[in-house]
Amino acid sequence: MSEDFHPDGTPQARVMPAFSRMLRLQAPSRADIVALLLLAGLAVMVVRGAEGVAQPLSHLQIQPVTIDPANLPGYALRTTLRMFAALLASLLFTLTYATLAAKSRWAEQILIPALDILQSVPILGFLTFTVTFFLNLFPGEILGVECAAVFAIFTSQAWNMAFSFYQSLRTVPADLIEVSQGFGLSPVRRFLRLELPFATPSLVWNAMMSMSGGWFFVVASEAITVGNTTVTLPGIGSYLALAIQNRDFHAVAYAVGAMGVVILIYDQLVFRPVVAWADRFRVEQTSSADQPNSWAYELFRRTTTFDWLFRVFELPAMLLLLFDRGPQRKAVSTRAPNRWVEIGWQVAVAIGVLSAAWAIFDYVHHTLTLHDGLTAFGYAGITLVRVLVLIALASVIWVPIGVWIGMRPVWAERLQPIAQFLAAFPANVMFPFFVIAILRWHLNVEIWLSPLMILGTQWYILFNVIAGASAIPNDLREAAGMFGVKGWQWWRQVVIPAIFPYYITGALTASGGSWNASIVAEMVSWGNDKLTATGLGAYIAKATVAGDYPRVALGIAVMSIFVVTLNRTLWRPLYAFGERRMRLS
Amino acid sequence: MATQILPSRTPLVEVEHLRHFYGRSAKGTPVIDDVNLTLFENEIVGLLGRSGSGKSTLLRSIAGLIQPDEGHVRFQRDDSRTAPDIAMVFQTFALFPWLTVLENVELGLEARKVPAEIRRERAIAAIDLIGLDGFENAYPKELSGGMRQRVGLARAIVVDPTLLLLDEPFSALDVLTGETLRTDLLDLWFEGRMPIKAMLIVTHNIEEAVLMCDRILVFSANPGRVAAEIKVELPQPRDRLDPAFRALVDEIYARMTARPIATQPARDGLFPGMGITMALPRVSTNSLAGLIEEVDGTPFNGEAGLSDLAETADLEVDELLPIAESLQLLRFAELRGADFVLTPAGRQYAGADVDARKALFAQALLAHVPLAGHIRRILDERANKQAPARRFRDELEDHMSEEYADETLRTVTLWGRYAEIFAYDEDSDRFSLEDPQ
Predict the structure, then answer these.
(1) Which of A186, A509, B147, B179 could in theory staple to A460 by disulfide, Cβ–Cβ 3.0 to 4.6 A?
(2) Nearest Cα residue in chain A from B102
(3) Distance between CA atoms of A233 and A63, rounded to whole angstroms?
(4) Is B144 on the interface with A (CB under 8 A)?
(5) Which stretch of DSSP H or E encloses residue A526?
(6) How many domains does chain A contain in total?
(7) Which of A282, A310, A334 lies at the terminal end of a domain, its last residue?
(8) What's the CATH number where A145 sits?
(9) Binning pLDDT at 50, 70 and 90, where does residue B437 land?
(10) Which residues of chain A are within 8 Å of residue B25 when distances are taken between CB atoms?
(11) Count of alpha carbons within 13 Å of A360, Cβ hemisphere only?
């Protein structure tokens, strides 16, 4: 961040340094040229990609998605832009929603439970409603479909970012808050100087995770079928869908390759530099030995021109400061506000929640019977069994591997990027192979379609176990070694307690993700072959294809209930137990 | 330097009938109760007291960081200024890790919208004054603890405060670094190189208070009240080895261990509350045994001055006093003024083996700590010899804040387990008479 956030600095103070810097004309360095080329290329690509959005919907029929690999770079560009648009939206959402929740006790009472529910709701089930909504908002234009796709990706990215930001805002160190208060920093300045920087490292980390998670939804959201309408946006996702429909293995391979290249590029050019930059915001009193490094960040830092470009990012901050009301010194009262106002507010919230519940019930009630409800619950039970069995299986496989990797720092460092790459890879790509295998060997659909649910989410377990295992203090390991603790005792008394809180975090995330994935994993096709397993996911998917809105709504509601209940009765208590008894600190 | 500036009696801040409670509700025991204080120009005032005596609460009320429940903080200020000019130095330094030294120092000026160029000029001047030249562009994590606190000082001085508040500014530093920084600060003060008109320093180090202050306010704990005001009229610079200095330190020790209210029984009076609802400090049985052994051995032979004891045992006063007072409560020792004297029971404990020690401790615990006796009695009466801890916690919370109740129960659990008069299981949160073997 620069030294100059100041809107009211004297003109002299603002212009002089800039002018003197211009006088210091230097021959552009090699770093300058490389950075400039990269940025110019990026700008051209953004413009090219954006051109396609401002077209009427009929354009999609004139220029349908083709399987020609020559079009793939263009498709990849469109997809990437969609993802970054969604990421930007998620960022804006996070900054406003989470800030409001952290600042206002009243808003908090609604926003945080709402966020909790939102992140448990199966996003894929929502596509039906959002596509309809956005198509009506921009009738006959591609923009509407684009918005629907971006929104689908947004819903997969925003919640965990908002949660992390909220958590950060609630855990700002008390002494730094006191300094800001003591100096009378206005709310805006306090946000820019203290809260935003403090929250940045975890926000960046969560944005990266979100970006990886987003790929899964890109594939699902670019080719949308709702009732009789099928809309296909140009992009890697729709290309892949077409390749699967045409049973074209080469095309599938091209799509996979293109995804790999895109992931590699944005990782190197966007996320690595940002992570390296965000390291400075870490609150730690000693400089850590292993700082993240990035060649791109070093390159940008060495340029003389880049400094200027960076100022663009300070524009929003300066705009915010225009609303700054100057220094404020006000003590915060610790007393509870008026009890009656509090009660009135809670009654109002309760009425709102009840009327919303009634509205949903009323909508579903008109077309569906109690029998439908029971059916949905029955299907949910089947999917629940799948989720639990799969989590158990994935744990048995990945916990030992994760522990092995985590205890060997050299390997952990070597394997980390590979594992991250695999995690970003949309699991949908693997679906056709399962279909082919099931058809060829006449396997049981109910059993062999199940692994697809956890294909994309098992990585959460692996990552967290690696993190937990590498955090085991060396003295504990040495003590265990000295006393000859081996075999089962070693697992029972050393490793499992040490990684337990980490493992639960991973399993919780994986479980939530698997429910969501069941919507695409329980009904899979390869060309004209369509395989369907029994479960709530398939129930929602079928209702979506048939345009049966009440059943979609019912399915989503039931799934949300199951996810929330599972979190509350299984994962949260386990997590609390781990935090209480097994946290090493 | 040697000549002390005579304090002129212009009042700077007046604190009147300040009272503040724990948590959200204005009931129960206040943190600070009816505190009155006037700060004059040209003086350094120390707030001395053990942890939980509300020193920090008072400091933060003056700083405007806390809105006290009752009472006023009044500033005598010239009309040209809108806000009282106060700056604070923190025990934890409270530096922004993502800002450089220069940016950290500029923070307060930036908040006041001082133009960039003047801001920089003033910040650099403050950095030079405090002896940090050359470190302007360093990040806090690159600096040592002493350097970081210098940044904290520069950041406070740069805004030209009339009053400087210091919250245990040197307690997170090692002894030598703290000493250097303290001397430097005093030099700046006596040479008049800072615009500051008065300093208020919170400390739990008696020697530090006597070294620096013109006036020391001794706080009693739970509720926090001003128990004594002591004027320090020794000339600056002061010498720790000066007999007058030692005498003053001893006097303050004696004040801090004096029982606050005459109506309470002499020995239990140091702990707030009566009978089973007496609040106990968190003191481990190892500390208790350690102090007995220390005093029993040479050179003390059963009798030690508190200030000597603090030095040999390397304990701060707010660590030493709770141990000494717990021993007094158990009748293993007695506090006589600034002296700590082992009782015959205490000397017997020192000479005993592990099992005999436990027996002695159990005896003392049941006889003199009503809560321990109470728990034991309830367990004896019950058929299953078990009782939920919640029951006792609720009982305590009727008489003290939640934190105190929790701490008291933890202490009694710790002592009771060591004495083997009852057992406790954390998972079920229950006391029992089960033999853990």
Answers:
(1) A509
(2) A3
(3) 10
(4) no
(5) strand A523-526
(6) 2
(7) A282
(8) 1.10.3720.10
(9) very low
(10) 336
(11) 13
Of A12, A189, A336, the CB nearest to B111: A189
Q: CA angle, corner A63, sides to A62 and A66, nearest 5?
A: 135
What distances in angstroms separate CA A240 from CA A79, A352, A428, A526, B360, one per listed residue? Answer: 12, 43, 9, 11, 80
How many C-alpha atoms does A416 have within 13 Å on its Cβ side? 15
Helix A142-170 to helix A123-137 angle (10° resolution) is 130
Classify residue A37: in a domain, yes or no.
Answer: no
User: In angstroms, rounded to a whole number, what is the distance separating the alpha carbons of residues B434 and B437?
Assistant: 8
Euclidean distance between CA atoms B163 and B14, whole angstroms = 12
Q: What amino acid is encoded at A471 in this protein? A: A
pTM: 0.77
The 10s digit of each residue's pLDDT in A255-299 is 888 888 888 888 888 888 888 888 777 766 555 555 667 777 777
ipTM score over 0.85, yes or no: no
Q: How many CB atoms are closer than 10 A to CB A331? A: 15
What domain range is A521 assigned to? 369-585
Asked if A185 has any chain B CB less than 8 Å from its own CB, the reply is: yes
pLDDT over 80 (residue A506) = yes
Residues forming beta bridges with residue B203, ordered by sequence position:
B48
Q: Does A583 reside within a domain?
A: yes
> CB distance from A179 to chain B under 8 Å?
yes
Q: Judge whether A50 lies within some domain.
A: no
CATH no., domain B285-432: 1.10.10.10
Residues of A with CB below 8 A from B103's CB?
A: 3
Give me the residues of B, 36-95, that contact A with CB < 8 A. Answer: 60-61, 63-67, 69, 83, 86-88, 90, 92-94
**Is beta strand B30-40 parallel, antiparallel or unpaired with respect to B11-21?**
antiparallel
Cβ within 8 Å, pair A193-B142: no
Report how far apart the first and last C-alpha atoms of chain A are (Å, whole number): 33
What pLDDT shows up at residue A14? 35
Give the domain ranges of chain B.
Answer: 11-256, 285-432
A201 touches chain B (CB under 8 A): no
Q: Which of A388 and A286 is assigned the larger pLDDT?
A: A388
B115 touching A (Cβ < 8 Å): yes
Tell me the average pLDDT across A338-345: 78
Q: Pick B11-256's CATH classification: 3.40.50.300, 3.30.1490.150, 1.10.10.10, 3.90.228.20.
A: 3.40.50.300
Chain B hits for A185, CB-CB cut-off 8 Å, are 107, 111
Contact A8 B112 (CB under 8 A): no
Name the phi and psi angles at B91, rounded to 5.
Answer: -60, -40
Residue A24 lies in a domain: no
